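Q: Here's a chain of 238 amino acids. Please give me its 3D structure as tokens.
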Amino acid sequence: MRVLMILPAYNEEETILSTVGQIQTAQLPQELEVDYVVINDGSSDATECICRENHIRCISLVQNLGIGGAVQTGYLYAALEGYDIAVQFDGDGQHDIRSLASLTAPIAAGACDFTVGSRFLDGSSTFRSSAFRRIGISYLSLLIRLLTGHRIADVTSGYRAAGRSALEYLARSYPVDYPEPESLVHLFKQGFRVQEVPVNMFQRSAGRSTISPLRSVYYMIKVTLAILCAAMQRGGRE
């Protein structure tokens, strides 16, 4: 299986080399042929220069599009290059490459079309975020379950994998601002099979989250409206 690791990066000069190094040095299953691409999302720091100087495959966006635009760029690249699986792997060092096999196995086996890496399923992850954020995640999980009938515990997880049909769909249609919860609703509405699997994540080793405490309330209102709108859209595989 040809796997593309999509690394969205915005001002990740302090972590991008170590994140790529995780992939380069990992002991991965022989059945996975793993490549990676950094999507430099209009960074104002040295992220692009570091990638170029170290011969890291990098697509640089001319301006900052946000996480949705960066990830969709990666899906477009994966679709054009014929990859079997695309994996979102954040450039800030939070995701554990050792969980890649667990994340991709259900797709490779044909059991589902899309997987979400969860910090909550077996309690083994070394990082779970703050109590306030966990409350927000639980709320969004309940909202999605009420609207779609499907339960995903870690709906904001950015560690996720898409099989060929799902990545082609997401290359054409992907939410822009805070896409993780909303994209799940779209996938469910389109009839894709989504499975949650346990993964390990770490605390950020540098930098800061783009979602500050002051923006949390705004985020919850906006993502709730986005989920409701997504749930009202026409279903059925496009």
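Q: Can you summarize the key feature?
A: The CA atoms of residues 4 and 35 lie 5 Å apart.
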